[in-house]
């Protein structure tokens, strides 16, 4: 069983209670620590606070060196300002693009929470923040403001600009779905509508897919068809953090609630969690695609955010998924796909001296082991 259980009587207030318990622990062991402070280096239990701001130091230096941000002053571009900006963006996204958002239709998808957690000098958060500052400059705003009602549409436009730049930089890739034969035609019709609505695409072979979607009796239970929140009873520990402080500062755990998107992950004292950090579940060998249950697609319609593949991964895919049951190993499937691709090239198109080409050269048709010798020149289409 990959799930760990947590016994909490009041989960909606758990984050507040958890933060209070940490502060009580700090004060009992270190009376000099203010009640509203957290130790240096502690995980961002208080996002946007002083401890969180420290993690933005390198990113702040990288942003300062960007030509488009050269004129930004120290009041708008510093680690503390960046921490507050990112927390403002996350809060605005949750309120307007998340499950709790008002209205019948979301104006865009939530950006993956992994973007907000990034602190690298040239990673996705760097790209997103450059886009945000450029948008602010184009609107001639003095400051970012996510509370002002009249800026709502422009803030959504800013998030769309961030999304566009993240896609262009290769940091945001929407799912390409292949439906296994274990999924009924009626289900495929419904799931296809969800995929296309939430910016995914349908492909015809597993090799083209980022996700192979199949039916799994253990995950695709009847209650998953209902539009209700999953129970927050089970979690898994993503990472542990021990602050570099004297005794009394609690070890913290970043936990993920099963079947909730990563934006709902949270820090809590590791003493409250039953279970160690788990080994990472990996994609099937030989194919660069996750093998997930149908619920992976259904849940995006609940949250406006693609979930964590580990929650939906079909572990015994070779026994349960039709494209593997037909005697094709992942390696054979990959080789068969490359052979199919090579055959499609050679069957329909003839390159060569007979076609009037002059310069001989090699082209790849799938892998390094599949090469064809061709000639530059016009292309003759075979009937």
TrEMBL record:
Enumerate the spans annotated as Chromo domain. Answer: 40-329
Descriptive protein name: Chromo domain-containing protein
Q: Give the species this sequence originates from.
A: Leptocylindrus danicus
């Amino acid at each position: 069983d990959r799930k760990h259980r947590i016994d909490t009587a009041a989960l909606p207030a758990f984050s507040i209670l958890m933060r209070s318990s940490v502060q009580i622990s700090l004060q009992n062991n270190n009376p000099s620590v203010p009640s509203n402070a957290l130790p240096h280096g502690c995980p961002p239990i208080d996002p946007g606070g002083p401890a969180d701001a420290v993690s933005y130091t390198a990113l702040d230096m990288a942003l300062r060196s960007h030509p488009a941000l050269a004129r930004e002053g120290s009041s708008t571009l510093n680690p503390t300002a960046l921490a507050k900006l990112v927390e403002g963006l996350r809060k605005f996204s949750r309120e307007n693009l998340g499950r709790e958002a008002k209205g019948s239709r979301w104006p865009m998808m939530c950006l993956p929470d992994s973007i907000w957690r990034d602190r690298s000098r040239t990673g996705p958060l760097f790209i997103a923040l450059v886009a945000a500052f450029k948008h602010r400059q184009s609107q001639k705003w003095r400051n970012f403001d996510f509370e002002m009602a009249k800026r709502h549409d422009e803030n959504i436009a800013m998030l769309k600009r961030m999304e566009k730049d993240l896609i262009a930089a290769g940091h945001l890739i929407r799912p390409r779905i292949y439906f296994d034969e274990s999924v009924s035609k009626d289900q495929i019709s419904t799931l296809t509508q969800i995929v296309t609505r939430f910016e995914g695409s349908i492909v015809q072979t597993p090799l083209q897919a980022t996700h192979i979607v199949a039916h799994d009796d253990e995950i695709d239970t009847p209650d998953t068809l209902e539009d209700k929140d999953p129970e927050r009873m089970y979690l898994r520990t993503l990472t542990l953090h021990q602050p570099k402080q004297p005794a009394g500062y609690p070890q913290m755990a970043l936990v993920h609630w099963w079947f909730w998107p990563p934006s709902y992950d949270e820090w809590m004292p590791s003493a409250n969690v039953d279970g160690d950090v788990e080994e990472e579940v990996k994609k099937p060998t030989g194919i660069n695609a996750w093998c997930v249950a149908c619920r992976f697609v259904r849940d995006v319609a609940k949250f406006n955010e693609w979930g964590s593949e580990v929650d939906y991964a079909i572990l015994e895919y070779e026994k349960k998924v039709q494209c593997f049951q037909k005697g094709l190993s992942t390696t054979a499937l990959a080789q068969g796909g490359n052979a199919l691709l090579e055959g499609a090239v050679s069957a329909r198109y003839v390159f060569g001296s007979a076609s009037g080409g002059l310069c001989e050269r090699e082209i790849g048709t799938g892998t390094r082991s599949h090469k064809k010798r061709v000639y530059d020149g016009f292309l003759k289409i075979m009937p």
